[in-house]
Specification:
This protein is mostly helical. Helices cover about 70% and strands about 0% of the residues. It contains 10 helices and no strands. The longest helix is centred in the last third of the chain and has 24 residues.
Length: about 140
């Protein structure tokens, strides 16, 4: 199962306030033109409705988003800002309701493993003398 599918499952099972936080995290790095091309423009409407500077996604806007829409958004966000996707770990683990699901546990595990692999790859590529590859 892909990261985008896992995020879609976690989103679908999350309570409305958590859905809003997930959306805020994912929408922040995205430009309007990109958002217009995803899920029929639903995310562009949310972005305009929630404000540009201090974005807060209203609960009613988050409730209108489907798991498949979130999966499509995550696919695009991964191309723009992997940090935004990695930031989902903090949101998921801060919510007892979300953190208790199997999909959330798997998502957090995968995101943490991917982040660790990227750090190790970066350290190796940079010739970091303190880099100790896993054995």
């Amino acid at each position: 199962m892909s990261i985008s599918q896992l995020v879609g499952q976690v989103f679908a099972a999350a309570p409305a306030p958590d859905r809003s936080r997930l959306l805020e995290q994912l929408l922040r790095p995205m430009g309007v033109l990109s958002l217009l091309t995803i899920a029929g423009g639903v995310f562009a409407k949310i972005r305009f409705h929630s404000g540009w500077q201090d974005m807060r996604v209203p609960l009613q806007d988050a409730e209108g988003v489907q798991a498949g829409d979130i999966s499509a958004l995550v696919d695009r966000v991964q191309q723009v800002s992997i940090d935004a996707v990695d930031g989902l770990v903090g949101i998921v683990t801060a919510s007892p309701v979300m953190a208790s699901s199997a999909a959330a546990a798997l998502l957090v595990t995968v995101l943490l493993q991917n982040a660790r692999s990227r750090r190790e790859r970066r350290a190796f590529m940079d010739g970091d003398p303190d880099f100790d590859p896993p054995t």
